[in-house]
Amino acid sequence: MASSVRKRIVKDRQMYLMLLPVILFFIIWHYIPMWGARIAFQDVRYVGANQWAGVKHFKMLFSSPVFFNVFKNTLIISAMKMFIIFPLPIILAFMLNEVSSTGYRKGIQSVIYLPHFLSWVVIAGLFISMLASPDGAVNKVRIFFHLKPISYMTSTHHIRWVFVFSEIWRSIGWDSILYIAAINSISPTLYEAATIDGATPLQQAFNITLPAIVPTIITVFILNLGFFMNAGFDQVFNMMNDAVINTVDIIDTYVYRVGLMQGNYSLGTAAGLFKGVIGLFLILSTDKLSRKVTGEGVW
Amino acid sequence: MRAKRNGIGHYSIIILLLITAIVMVYPLYNQLVISLTGSDYIVEANGTTLVPHGFTLNTYRNVLAIPKVARGVLNSIFITAAGLVINIIFTSMGAYVLTKRNLYGRSFFITMIVITMIFEGGLIPDYFLMRRLHLLNTYWSVILYKAVNPYYLIILMRFFDQVPPSLIEAARIDGYNETKILFKIVIPVSVAGIATVSLFYGVFHWNEYFRAMIYLTDEGKFPLQVVLRELLISAEKASFIGSMNYLKGTAAAQLDIKAIKAALIIISIIPILVFYPFVLKFFVKGRLQGSVKE
Questions:
Q1: Rounded to a whole number, what is the distance in Å from the CA of B294 to chain A's nearest CA?
Q2: Residues of A with CB below 8 A from B277's CB?
Q3: Is A18's CB within 8 Å of B93's CB?
Q4: What is the secondary structure of chain A as a DSSP string?
Q5: What distance in Å separates the CA atoms of residue A30 and residue B119, rounded to the nearest whole number?
Q6: Is B112 on the interface with A (CB under 8 A)?
Q7: What's the rounded Cα separation, in Å, for the pair B41 and B38?
Q8: What CATH number is associated with residue B66?
Q9: Of A92, A135, A177, the CB nearest to B46
Q10: A57-294 fold
């Protein structure tokens, strides 16, 4: 046995040689930082070796009202995005499917995918400008209808909705691609038969299209659930300001600000690790759920 | 034949889609208009201006003359190009080897890669690693950072999986070594896959700002996105164009902050707009290949 393994390795030595730098990259950029995350259990010393500190930093974290608020914000923002945004790409895919002119459909599609490729820095810039008070587009329209202009970016009542809307703006088109593909793979004969039976387009949408894409819907939903702890660092980071910080601060921005900027390295790493472990648990359990429901894992 | 679609329902869908598309484009269009508006009219220009009054390219000329903007553009091009070359070489090497089904240890290596998709050390350990490697404040920190993306590696594996094995066997019989097979046979027949993954990596590097912001300290090394962020967040003209320029009242100092921001936003998305139409079909394909979320 052992010699046959050796034979296979020797035979494929060029392959392993090519794989080596790739595996090294993964060890350096992924596994060493994982090992580095042990500073969550240590006190960082500038001179000499770090001292083990047990779960001291986690205790500190869980007794901190700031972190409690940050954790709450993460859950609220993520839940708002998930439940409000989730159905929209499906509706969009349905609408696109109803368009009879291929040229029109392609034109619309090429426009609505574009925002996905813009950076959050740019998107934040666009939204700050559009929502500016009083001369951004939105407030111009409000003034036209004799409504008071609102300073959306600095209003604690509105900023989370700005996150929801800008996320919709960025991802609705791109996220519809999966559903469009699922719809396209439905056999046209189903529609032909339904048409002969006198089914209206609406009846067809509900009785043919919807059932056919339910597996895709379930898969995407489960996948989103797995990434629930990612409330959207880049978005929040680029759109936050001092006026709304208590409403929008999430775990990732906390790690950056309190951990890296203020130099509380162990505390910041502990917060990141806490989020990572919850995320890991979510992904593993959604993977199990997915296998049960759709017969296919997330991977 | 589908049910005939010409009722009120059909038309309202068409109009709704049109409105969606306008909402997607309008914010960009508005910035374009503001960036082209003449300095005499810029004060009135706002979110609902549809046509640039006193059309001028002056803003662009002067914005590109601000040293940190010009540096930023060059830095972004350099980081994107260098990063892309490294990404593609190593991602395709990994993808090629791992598509070989009977490779000993294959599932171990794949598991090792998949784990990195669901768990990471985090921001602060990453930063400490960069410091230990003495890469802080070097271009390498942003070029090499996570040089092989596990998601893109898996996307590329699916493309390489479709290369006919007979092609590879024939090359082996001809005495090609594995590296030669990859670069002379597999990559050339997987243009769609390479294009898709290149574009993902390209957009990633071009849009990257956060790691650059924390790893680089020397302003001369900042990519465009960091420069843009500084302007959008700090929003102060004097500090942005430099107090010396400001006091001397150079051409850049005469510009309205609104126009500078708008021009910078447009400049930063030009490469994306230029490549976008060509790559649209590749991107869509890549999205379908990678069933996992980015």
A1: 10
A2: 110
A3: yes
A4: -HHHHHHHHHHTHHHHHHHHHHHHHHIIIIIHHHHHGGGGGEE--SSSPPEE-TTHHHHHHHT-HHHHHHHHHHHHHHHHHHHHHTHHHHHHHHHHHH---HHHHHHHHHHHTGGGGS-HHHHHHHHHHHT-TTTSHHHHHHHHTTPPP--GGG-TTTHHHHHHHHHHHHHHHHHHHHHHHHHHTS-HHHHHHHHHTT--HHHHIIIIIHHHHHHHHHHHHHHHHHTTT---HHHHHHH--TTTHHHH--HHHHIIIIIIIS--HHHHHHHHHHHHHHHHHHHHHHHHHHHHHHS----
A5: 9
A6: yes
A7: 6
A8: 1.10.3720.10
A9: A135
A10: MetI-like fold (1.10.3720)
**Residues B5 and B135 placed together within one structural domain of the fold:** no
Q: Where exactly are the structural domains of chain A?
A: 1-54, 57-294
Task: For an interface test with B, give the residue of A19, A179, A278 to mutate (most B CBs within 10 A).
Answer: A19
CB contacts, 8 Å: B100 with chain A: 12, 15
Taking contacts as CB-CB distances below 8 angstroms, the residues of chain B near A29 are: 129, 144-147
| Chain A residue closest in CA terms to B117 | A30
Instruction: Indicate if B134 and B218 belong to the same structural domain.
Output: yes
Nearest Cβ partner of B123 from A111, A117, A256? A256
Q: Which residues in B lie closer than 8 A to residue A104 (C-beta atoms)?
A: 14
**Are A299 and B114 an interchain contact pair (Cβ–Cβ within 8 Å)?**
yes
Q: Residues of B with CB below 8 A from A28's CB? A: 129
Same domain, B52 and B163: no
A-B C-beta contacts closer than 8 Å: 264
Please return the burial class of B237, using the count of CB atoms within 10 Å of its CB with bins 0-12, 13-18 and 19+: middle
User: How far, in Å, CA of A233 to CA of A192, rounded?
Assistant: 47
Question: Scanning every residue of chain B, which has its alpha carbon at the shortest distance from the alpha carbon of A255?
Answer: B123
One domain, residues B6 and B66: no
B79-113 tens-digit pLDDT? 999 999 999 999 999 999 999 988 999 999 999 99
Q: Is the pLDDT of residue B291 over 50?
A: no
Whether ipTM exceeds 0.85: yes
Domain boundary among B40, B56, B72: B56
Residue B290: which domain range? 58-294
Q: How many domains are contained in chain B?
A: 2
User: Considering CB atoms only, which of B100, B125, B210 is closest to A234?
Assistant: B210
Chain B residues touching residue A99 (CB < 8 angstroms): 13-14, 17
Instruction: Tally the C-alpha atoms within 13 A of residue B201's C-alpha that lie toward its C-beta.
Output: 34
pLDDT (tens digit per residue) in A75-125: 999 999 999 999 999 999 999 998 888 889 989 999 999 999 999 999 999
| Rounded average pLDDT per 10-residue block, chain A, 299 residues | 82 93 96 95 84 91 95 97 95 91 90 94 94 89 92 94 97 93 88 88 88 89 88 95 94 95 94 94 88 73
Contact A122 B20 (CB under 8 A): no
